[in-house]
Amino acid sequence: MFATVKLGKKNGELAKKLFEIRSVTLLAKKNYSQQVNVDEFFKFYSDKVYHDDRYKPLNGKDYDRFISMRSARREPAVTRQITSLSYKVGKQMISLAEGMPNENVFPFKRLLLDSSCGDPLELEGKELAAALQYLPSQGLPSLLTELRKFQDDLHRPPQLPRDILVTNGSQHGIYQCVELLVDPGDPVITTEFAYTGIHSTLKPYQPEIIGIPEDEDGLIPETLDSVLGERLRLGLKMPKVLYIIPTGSNPSGTVLPEARRRQIYELSCKYDFLILEDDPYMFLNYTDTQVPSFLSMDTHGRVIRLDSVSKVVSAGLRGAWVTAPIPLLERLELHMQAELLHSCTLSQTILLQVLSSRSSLARHLIGARQFYLKRRDALNSALEPISDLAPYSVPKAGLFFWIRVNGVSDVFNMVFHTALQQGLMLVPGQAFLFDSSSPCQHVRLTFSRVRFEDMETAVRRLADLIRNEQQIKKKMYANDG
Ligand SMILES: Cc1ncc(COP(=O)(O)O)c(C=O)c1O
């Protein structure tokens, strides 16, 4: 399933390992009473096999049409290729080639990182030196092996040549993918309100944003179909990529149900676009349904998946990875060579430690979900009494409430002037629009860090602000009238 980029074809040993199925089973507490099975917890695929013969899977040269002009001009850095080679050749090789520093000048002696998630990480001598040295651009080889297995176990992606690149956070992956796929002026599909980081990355490309509305189950496939059908009929330029957060959309908190994911996947084949699946909230799904990922459905080589441990393990670690068809991943790696050389080696070493005990990780993730769920529920209880002023749907996943403020057509003034004066920080909805100067009725509230005891006060202040803003608007209309 996963072939290494450098080898370009499957390595028998590795492939064998990848198909091993883990039998670790852990019983842990969920909602303080239910029991959770680790294999089920880490299951993001369907047992049912789907294949749509109407469309041909993409391969090799097919990807050329998706690659931006800028990315197509990238060429391999010879010294980076030598670094990769140096990780593969035997010890008998005398190297006068590498530009690596000598580890003996590194001043560090020992690193001990104790953790509630698995064994402590203890590094000394050669191991510590290796964790502080340059790497091949794709990532730490042992981490890549673990990640290939992780993706295979969690998503069981259909067998197509794909591989992984370790990035410096998912935002970095977004940036790389935009550079890979988007030429100035290209159309890009997103949800109507989308994560700020995709917009800020896209801005300099002056794309045409095709913003598809969501309901409480996320992006509406029928609308996407009719919008794209109409574009085709009118002979307009068609988008090469859809950016989507399938679980815990930021800001809307929706979880796309499996049926919608399958419909959207089929549309990607019908209208020939790629799906950029950004899924940092996958472990913060508060519903009882674990939904198969787009990667798990990717029979036709159309999914680029972004994973990140920022929300559940550590944000500052910048632990993230891209899983993509090999022709695309090769381009991303060239970008990495030029941009960063590689993601931080020490972070990758820590990430490897975190991922390598699946049962400890499951226990930690279940705890993290429970932790956030309590906060979601507490903020929900605080917000319920003002739901006539600010209606909302309870977020099904992720970290955000997305509320619509009644009687206030634009919340900008309220958020940036009155709310701040009243000691309340909020995010105005326009932060999630490509054109952030547009008026917007929505506000995003985050429940991840606010103290329980501050929630009711925060909501009381919010309610006062909304009433105040509604009065101002009323007076303005009365004066205009
Ligand atoms: C949807 C989404 N994608 C990506 C990111 C960035 O994640 P990372 O810390 O891995 O760069 C965020 C952070 O808020 C996010 O909400």
Automatic annotation (TrEMBL):
Q: Which SUPFAM superfamilies match?
A: PLP-dependent transferases (SSF53383)
Annotated Aminotransferase class I/classII large domain ranges read 132-462
Mind listing the GO molecular function terms for this protein? kynurenine-oxoglutarate transaminase activity; pyridoxal phosphate binding
Cofactor(s) needed: pyridoxal 5'-phosphate
The entry's keywords: Aminotransferase, Pyridoxal phosphate, Transferase
Q: Extract the InterPro entries matched here.
A: Aminotransferase_I/II_large, Class-I_PLP-dep_aminotransf, PyrdxlP-dep_Trfase, PyrdxlP-dep_Trfase_major
Where does the sequence pass through the membrane? none
Protein family according to the UniProt entry: Belongs to the class-I pyridoxal-phosphate-dependent aminotransferase family.
PANTHER family documented for this protein: AMINOTRANSFERASE (PTHR42790), KYNURENINE_ALPHA-AMINOADIPATE AMINOTRANSFERASE, MITOCHONDRIAL (PTHR42790:SF19)
Q: How does it assemble?
A: Homodimer.
Listed name of the protein: Aminotransferase class I/classII large domain-containing protein
- What is the organism field in this record? Arctia plantaginis
